[in-house]
Design brief:
By secondary structure, the chain is α/β, with parallel strands linked by helices. It has two domains: 200 residues, CinA-like (Maf protein); 190 residues, 3-Layer(aba) Sandwich (Rossmann fold), CATH 3.40.50.620. The protein has 17 helices and 16 strands. The strands form three sheets. The protein has an eight-stranded mixed beta sheet, with helices on both faces. It has a six-stranded mixed beta sheet with strand order 2-1-3-4-5-6, sandwiched between helices.
């Protein structure tokens, strides 16, 4: 038995927070608990105010005291309370209590849920704006297993009361979406900002799980957050689940490689291996404390117009199969990417890039929206503990290998480039493989789509097999064409 609309009219406009809460309350099958820690009980307050809550709310609680919270949900190994682990324990504990205390025989049509959040609002000094984990564990049929939607938010407002109100509206949107929009996860995600301005909060991670979401690719859900302007960066790991960048990058040395990876070529992997070797050789870098990221910009995904989700998933599938962490960002300029990393770490960072990307760094047109122009952008780059590892380019016309020594930049940028280079920020990747420098992703992609032979030799070992096995990038087996 799925959730019934109970004769409700289809709503064309965005329903108010009150009407969403009331619709949940008037559904006699939906029944569950609210557990909110850290920002009041703002979500459940909306359900109480809407009316008819007695048939929906089994229990509401706020275990604010840490010892009391530990007694209920257990002790966290890292001693922190605003974590995904804590949220999941809260969700499961509360659902188990409902299952234990209510008879399925007496309530055969009830579909249970638990909503939870664990949040830290803005501190007194207003240096830390706050963040939190929010989630719901819910059924859509009494005989079905539970589904989960878990997300992470970062507050943008600078007032604790406003943050609490924002959290309350988001909570209602999540619960409403879980029960009435579960068949369209993309629309469900968009609905999180119903009755909210996007300057009030950022949602930078989301994961769906359970029987109703078994065909949902969480990497694609991450892309929706980025496309909808809910965040500027998302991240996922080799297991295909979304990761929280703040958690993965916290106090880490970071080496980032930007590219289209469409597909990953021998050049990409040579740049990866050689820059990693140079990065690990740095005195300030600890191998065990390093996070390596393959980064793709949103503008790159849009290079051919609208984002092709199949193309995005093909790139993601290949990089995940290679065991890499992948980040998609809205930071076309490198200095913004470095600024973003600096929110989480003060440790040394590295950027590995080819000649064309380095030339773009010294192109003034990319800094027209910066009040201080290219000088301000470079000031932000120099302020960080950053190294740039430059992979050479082979000029086929002159048979010359372009490195930092013979790279030509705009005459106005010569002194800035010289200063950048002489300060040790720019490091040449010298032990490159000359045999592979003429390999380009766009050439390989064209050959794959056209069914041409020989593209396999341009890719790292194992990659052609992955492309063929999973039919990535438009590959068609010649036997069946």
């Amino acid at each position: 038995m799925a959730v019934s609309l109970k004769g409700d009219q289809k709503i064309n406009s965005v329903p108010t927070t009150k009407s969403k809460a009331l619709r949940i309350n008037l559904n006699t099958d939906i029944y569950g608990t609210f557990a909110e820690i850290g920002a009041g009980q703002e979500t459940v307050r909306n359900f109480f105010r809407a009316g008819g809550a007695s048939g929906t709310i089994a229990k509401t609680m706020s275990a604010y005291d840490k010892d009391f919270s530990d007694a209920i949900y257990g002790i966290e190994e890292d001693g922190r309370y605003v974590t995904e682990s804590r949220l999941k324990k809260m969700l499961r504990h509360e659902v188990d209590l409902v299952e234990h205390r209510l008879s399925r025989t007496k309530h055969p049509n009830k579909i249970f849920f638990s909503y939870a959040n664990t949040v830290a609002t803005i501190d007194f000094s207003k240096k830390f704006k706050g963040h939190g984990w929010v989630g719901i564990r819910f059924q859509l049929d009494p005989l079905e297993d539970y589904n989960e939607i878990i997300l992470h938010l970062r507050f943008k407002e600078t007032d604790a009361r406003l943050q609490q109100e924002t959290l309350g509206v988001l909570g209602v949107n999540l619960i409403y979406g879980a029960f009435y929009m579960n068949d369209n996860p993309k629309e469900l995600i968009r609905s999180f900002y119903d009755n909210l301005d996007n300057h009030r909060l950022e949602i930078d991670m989301i994961n769906f799980s359970g029987p109703r979401f078994m065909y949902v690719d969480n990497r694609l859900m991450s892309l929706q957050l980025l496309k909808n302007g809910m965040t500027n960066a998302v991240m996922f790991g080799p297991d295909e689940n979304n990761l929280l960048p703040a958690q993965v990058l916290y106090k880490k040395n970071i080496l980032a490689l930007r590219g289209s990876f469409r597909p990953v070529t021998k050049v990409n992997m040579d740049m990866f291996e050689k820059s990693r070797k140079l990065f690990f050789a740095e005195n300030k870098v600890k191998k065990e404390n390093t996070q390596i990221i393959f980064e793709i910009t949103l503008s790159n995904l849009r290079s051919e117009g609208e984002i092709n989700e199949r193309d995005f998933l093909d790139r993601a599938e290949l990089l995940c199969s290679l065991g890499q962490n992948v980040m998609i960002t809205n930071y076309q300029q490198y200095y913004k990417l470095v600024e973003y990393f600096s929110e989480f770490t003060k440790a040394r960072m590295g950027l590995a890039m080819g000649v064309y990307n380095l030339i773009e760094i010294f192109d003034e047109k990319y800094y027209r929206d910066v009040s201080g122009g290219i000088l301000e952008a470079f000031g932000k780059l120099f302020y960080r503990d950053l190294k740039v590892y430059m992979y050479p380019y082979h000029d086929q016309k002159t048979d010359e290998y372009i490195t930092s020594e013979n790279l030509k930049v705009h005459p106005r940028m010569k002194e800035l480039y010289k200063f950048f280079k002489q300060n040790g920020r720019l490091v040449n990747i010298d032990d490159f493989d000359k045999e592979i420098l003429d390999i380009f992703s766009r050439t390989v992609l064209k050959m794959i789509k056209n069914g041409e032979e020989g593209w396999e030799e341009m890719l790292p070992e194992g990659v052609p097999q992955i492309i063929k096995q999973k039919r990535l990038f438009g590959y068609i087996n010649p036997k069946f064409s």
